[in-house]
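Bug #77: duplicate submission created two jobs. Keeping one. Sequence:
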Amino acid sequence: MAAGGGNPGNVTQLLRRWSGGNREVLEELAPLVYNELRSLAASRLALERDGHTLQPTALIHEAYLRLVQLDSTDWHSRSHFFAVACRLMRQILVDHARRYRAAKRGGGHRVTLNEAISFASERGGMLLDLDEGLRELESFDERKAKLIELKYFGGLSSEEISQAMGISVSTIMRESRLAEAWLHNYLGQGAAQ
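Kept job's structure:
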C-alpha cells in the first residue's frame, strides 16, 4: 500500500495505544490512515459496476465506524489494521451487492475466478459468488482465504501480506496460486450448473 498517511511506525504506535484502551488516540490516528483508506476504497469501487451507488467516502466512513466500534482488538501493526479494514470493506461491499441483487431480483449464475476478481461493471452479482467461494475456502483453509481477501479486496502486495500475516513471501506466492486455482474450479463448477 502506498504510504498515504504518515509514518508507518507512528501509526503502529497509535494502534497499540488504542489496543491498550486509549480511545483518545483515534483523533490522532484518523488523519494518518484516512488517505490510505480512501485510496483503498476508491480502488475497490472503481472495479464495481457502472452506476454503483456507494461512494468511496461512504465506504471508508462505514468501514471506519465499524473499526472504531470493535472491542478489544489487539492491533499488531499498521498492516494488521489495514487487513481488518480490508475485510470490513469486503463485508460492506458484499452487503451492498446483496441488497442490489435483491432489488433487481436477479438470478445467481456462477462465474470464473478471473471474471469475479475483475468485478466488471456488467457483472454486479459476481462479488456475491466470489464471497461465497471465499467463505467455502475459509471453512477448510482460513489462511488461503485471507490471502485472497488481502490480495484482491485489500490490494496488498505479497510483501505487505507477508508482514500482516507473519509468513514468508514465497509461502504467500505458493498459497495464493493454490487458492486461486481452487476458487477458479469452484466458480467454474457453479457456471456449469
